[in-house]
Amino acid sequence: MASRRSVGFRYVASPMSVLTGNRDFRRLLLAELVVFGADWFVMVPLLVLLPELTGSGVWGALLLAADTGIHALLLPFTGTLADRFDRRKILIAANLAAVLAVLLLLAVRTPQTAWLALLAIAALAVAKACYSPAAQAALPNVVSAEELPAANVFAGSAWGTMAIVGASLGGLLSAAFGPYACFWIAAAALLVAAGVTTMIHRPMQAPRDAALPTLRTLAAIRETLAYIARRPQVLALVTAKSAVGLGNGVLTLFPLLAGVYGVGAIGTGLLFAVRGAGAVVGPLLMRPVLNRRAWLLTGLAMSMSVYGLSYASVALVTWFPLVLALVFLAHLGGGSNWVLSNYALQAVVPDRLRGRVFAADLMLATLAISVSQLLVASVIDTLDTRIILAACGLVTITYATGWWLVTRRFSLAAPVDDDAATGTH
User: Fold this and answer.
1) pLDDT (tens digit, 9 = 90+) per residue, 244-262?
2) Is CATH 3.90.220.20 correct for 215-425?
3) Per-residue pLDDT, 414
4) Helical ranges in 231-294 per DSSP H
5) How far is CA 194 from CA 95, 99, 331, in A?
């Protein structure tokens, strides 16, 4: 067949055949792209609007902290929802709740109403915390086993694609028509995402065993932690994203780095653009690894190392185009890390636990990012930018080395357990 390729004794679908041949996957991917884009249409204009209204940059920092912190703290609880309730309904409800949160931003008009932006972003963070684990846990249910590697290529590139398109358009439209036009566009986009999700026909989770009791939230969280702790391979996978997360404080340095090279706002925009481009290309290059589960852990260790080595190298170069190339390479590694760990978890974790395990995975990654950004913020005014860059890169390299030493004996070539082999319980 033209649309499939042999790997060993099994066949895997090509990315284009999945995109053109699986209508439900197309709809899920489109909804995710819209959700990611809407997020940028909110944050970029809002980070410009609040300093203009209040005369202070503190509000922007508070917005980012609320967005990241609330999202991370809620994930253990929202992950249980993704395993207990209909994931399609969760995705739709999260989109509709996000619409209401975005519309609240239309009331942010004066310094006295700036606090409403914090409330709206907090509500958006709750909606995203519900959406993320449900969407990632649902993906293996809307594609076949042979389509899953190819589907992850597109799903893994979705965030990076919208980081380029959404952030760029959000900034341009905000400058041309004002932030409130962007808020209306974001609200309309989220309504579209909800509508597209209603058109997905395949069930987004495996049938539940009626004989199994429904666990309360805390009991469900304890069950998930016990499941992860008993399986070293799964524990390795849920800690894989933390390597890149702990080095993610470098993003705080982008404006300063642009200043070092005298390229100003244009240079800052280019740094964020090549970051998004790397996050798009990385998953596309990882397709051969996705098709060979025995390569996944090695691929993860290499992706971490590429991220760390690239940013450590940025601290040594003096030519800005080379800096852009290294930032692209770093986030090619970061995007690869994300898609490889997602696919591996989807492949080995049973459906009844998948939402909760993904919630734990996302929580650890988000907390690692927050810790890195806070540490960078604490030294950004006292240490040279290049020293901080090198330190962030070395942290990731050190983590990657330790992670590889611990996991080099593991294998994902065979199922982690019988439940994982079937995706059911």
Assistant:
1) 989 888 877 777 788 888 8
2) no
3) 57
4) 232-238, 241-246, 254-260, 264-285, 287-290
5) 6, 10, 30
Domain boundaries, the chain: 12-205, 215-425
Question: What is the spatial distance between Cα 58 and Cα 32, in angstroms, rounded to a whole number?
Answer: 30
pLDDT band of residue 58 (cuts 50, 70, 90) is low
Q: What is the per-residue pLDDT for 27?
A: 93
Span 278-299, average pLDDT: 83
CB 372 within 8 A of CB 246: yes
Q: Does CATH place domain 12-205 in 1.20.1250.20?
A: yes
pLDDT of 190 over the 70 cut:
yes
- The 10s digit of each residue's pLDDT in 134-189 is 988 888 888 887 888 878 778 777 777 776 777 677 777 877 888 899 999 999 99
CB atoms near residue 229 (< 10 Å): 10
φ/ψ region of 55 (left if φ > 0, alpha if ψ in -120 to 50, else beta) reads left
CB 311 within 8 A of CB 392: yes
Average pLDDT, whole number, for the chain? 83
Contacts of 39 (CB under 8 A, 6+ apart): 124, 128, 162, 166, 186
CB atoms within 10 A of CB 129: 26
Residues 6+ apart with CB under 8 A from 189: 34, 35, 37, 38, 41
Token representation of residue 37: 């884009």
| Token pair listed for 172 | 């341009």
Q: Decide if 236 contacts 410 (C-beta within 8 A).
A: yes
- Residue 123's identity, in one-letter code, is A
Q: Are 105 and 120 in contact (CB under 8 A)?
A: yes
Say if 12-205 and 215-425 have the same CATH topology.
yes
- Residue 402: what are its φ and ψ, rounded to 5°? -65, -40
Q: How many CB atoms lie within 10 A of CB 306?
A: 24
Q: What is the pLDDT of residue 423?
A: 39
What confidence tier does 415 reach under pLDDT thresholds 50, 70, 90?
low
The answer to pTM > 0.70 is yes
- How far is Cα 243 from Cα 241, in angstroms, rounded to an integer? 5
Q: Burial code of 324-347, b = ≥16 C-beta within 10 A, e = fewer?
A: bbbbbbbbbbbbbbbbbbbbbbbb
